[in-house]
Inverse folding.
């Protein structure tokens, strides 16, 4: 049974947080607090479990910022398809301040594909799973296009669990929702660029290089027979 502390502690305008049972997923979101909730829905007169992820942005958000987040999500979803979980961006109030929450399809992260510490396991699993291998290939092709054709736009791989293998489906998922692109040009244009931004861009590019290496290793050892 869930305990009394299994509740979203913030006041969210569009959610009955006093009744909603949810579990905090610690140390996950760079921009947001991440909760997992399980409820039931009635579909064709049958009750079904429904798992969802609820993300609460740490800072107040203007409507223009919310629009930008939603546009970036739609861009990812259009290009990457099922690699990006279904999600809805909702303009609301959090603790009395205008903000945004995301209600997303639940994913069970197995491990971070962009972390070299998981290299051996990632290569072995994706060699055995052609669908996941193709999803990684599609992700990397899109990342190369965004960087080469859209002004050095870098997809965010800085987080602990942005690009993961789903434990239940063994498929690749990109689960970041806020500020999913960096502009590397800003490092040249700004007179005094933020060191944190530089670090996030540098690490994301390094991880993209690593993922290209992983894909090459998968293909080198892959045998369809």
């Amino acid at each position: 049974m869930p305990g009394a502390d299994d509740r979203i502690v913030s006041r969210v305008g569009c959610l009955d947080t006093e009744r909603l049972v949810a579990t905090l997923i610690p140390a996950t979101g760079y921009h947001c607090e991440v909760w997992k909730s399980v409820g039931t829905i009635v579909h064709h007169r049958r009750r079904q479990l429904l798992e969802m992820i609820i993300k609460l942005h740490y800072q107040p958000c203007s409507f223009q910022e919310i629009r930008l987040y939603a546009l970036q999500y739609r861009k990812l979803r259009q290009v990457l398809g099922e690699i990006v979980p279904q999600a809805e961006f909702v303009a609301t109030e959090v603790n009395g301040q205008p903000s945004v929450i995301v209600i997303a399809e639940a994913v069970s992260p197995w491990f971070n594909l962009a972390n070299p510490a998981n290299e051996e396991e990632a290569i072995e699993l994706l060699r055995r799973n052609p669908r996941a291998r193709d999803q990684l290939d599609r992700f990397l092709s899109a990342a190369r296009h965004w960087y080469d054709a859209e002004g050095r736009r870098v997809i965010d791989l800085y987080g602990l669990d942005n690009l993961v293998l789903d434990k239940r489906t063994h498929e690749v998922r990109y689960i970041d929702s806020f500020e999913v692109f960096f502009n590397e040009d800003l490092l040249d244009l700004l007179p005094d660029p933020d060191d944190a931004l530089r670090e996030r861009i540098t690490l994301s590019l390094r991880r993209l290089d690593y993922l290209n290496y992983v894909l090459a290793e998968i293909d080198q050892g892959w045998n369809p027979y």
